[in-house]
Design brief:
four-stranded antiparallel sheet; alpha+beta; 3 helices; globular; six-stranded mixed sheet; 33% strand; 215 residues; single chain
Amino acid sequence: MKRVGFVFATVVIALIVSGSAMAQQYSVTYFSNANTSGAPDGTLRIINDGYEATACPNGACNGTLWADIYVFDDSEEMIACCSCRITSDGLLSESVDQQLANPSGPTGPGVIGSTFSTRGEFSRGVIKVVGSSNNDPTDPVPTYGLHGWMTHIQAAKVKLPGGAESSPFYVTETPLAEASLSDAELSSLGSVCSYGLVDNSGYGWCGCSPEDLDF
């Protein structure tokens, strides 16, 4: 009985580990002090590690993926969504001020697409990224192979001689946090993005940079 119990427990643990490994993954982060006078711009950078590549003729690998990007304000409302192409071993750079949280639309050189909004400026919120095998953010098909980093703009109160205060900005950079993506969250991201793009809700498409453009 002891041996049977041990075997059963081993099988259960293996199934749990296997199920965890197969869970859908996506990445999450935040932005702060966007569209703020005197503050530098934040940058979202994402690479395609080539996981989906099956062939590399002359060093040019296939396995192109899309970063489906969903931007929320600090009231948990989606303000932008887009699907940005990243080839194998490629780098995508997205400006927070110009592309992801700018209601007047992207203004940088070579920007593809346009934002939307008449809902005012956004200074802080949440960004979610789903690596997808198609280029439709309203119907993402999750896959592995994307990794991202985000620069964060931090404000700090500094006491000056005489009691005055200054608020300098500092830039930090962290990897995007990996999280488990539930079926409910995946469906919600696609349907809310679709609502914004199709039904003129006041938000919509964010801009995608060419891979050779950085901020």
